[in-house]
Design brief:
alpha/beta; globular; 231 residues; four-stranded antiparallel sheet; 41% helix; five-stranded parallel sheet
Length: 231
């Protein structure tokens, strides 16, 4: 069974989630300190991590920001009940999903299973293992290896970012609505809202512009959606 890393400074939440996920058959590692968790996640990556955003010393946002410098580890953020900014910041640093406190353990488990399914579908030998690479101008996407390059330079993408870009690049010039991109990147049982897709698109653009500051292949059509324009 998969290994889950739980990172939260609330020991009661950690203890409760550890009991729950172990009963579901997962191997569980727990961390109450963001800095210690960062070291462990980088050295011995689990299959998925669940990070609380608000922690002392090093919060979840900073943990993920540093982690994303060299890892595509699937990550779900735990956010405050009514703080929408938590969600926006979380997606902007590369979170794959979020869930608000207080939360149902069963709902969190469904989010975990959905994200693991998407991750496995993009892994070698997974559901995408027989797909040919997508080449669109300077862009190459290889679903078999979950690899992306722009002008020959590698672009490190999360699972969600890869699936969104793949959906756009499959039909260059055609508009994809936010709903269509949600369907491409998320499990049917997972609800996300419009700003989630917008945040992922913003991060995608930033990653490509870090390599090529003239990158403009992803176009926004306000009120409609997005499209990939092949140069």
């Amino acid at each position: 069974m998969p290994t889950i890393a739980l990172v939260d400074d609330d020991e009661n939440i950690l203890a409760s989630l550890k009991i729950f996920f172990e009963a579901e058959g997962y191997t569980v590692r727990t961390y109450t300190d963001g800095a210690a968790a960062l070291t462990a996640l980088a050295e011995t990556p689990p299959d998925i991590a669940i990070l609380d955003i608000k922690m002392p010393r090093m919060d979840g946002v900073e943990v993920l920001r540093r982690l994303r410098q060299g890892s595509n580890l699937p990550v779900i953020f735990l956010t405050s009940k009514d703080d929408e900014m938590d969600e926006v910041v979380g997606f902007n640093v590369g979170a794959d999903d979020y869930i608000k406190k207080p939360f149902s353990q069963r709902l969190l488990n469904e989010r975990v299973k959905a994200l693991l399914r998407r991750t496995r579908a993009g892994a070698p030998g997974g559901e995408t293992g027989d797909k040919k690479p997508i080449v669109r101008g300077e862009l190459t996407l290889d679903p078999n290896r979950h690899a992306c390059t722009w002008k020959g330079e590698p672009v490190r993408l999360t699972v969600t970012e890869f699936l969104i870009l793949q959906a756009l690049a499959q039909r260059p010039g055609y508009v994809k609505s936010r709903d269509q991109l949600m369907d491409a990147a998320y499990d049917d049982q997972v609800y996300v809202d419009d700003r989630t897709i917008d945040s992922h698109i913003k991060r995608l653009r930033k990653k490509f512009r870090d390599i090529d500051d003239t990158f403009d292949a992803i176009e926004t059509l306000y009120g409609v959606g997005y499209r990939y324009n092949e140069a």
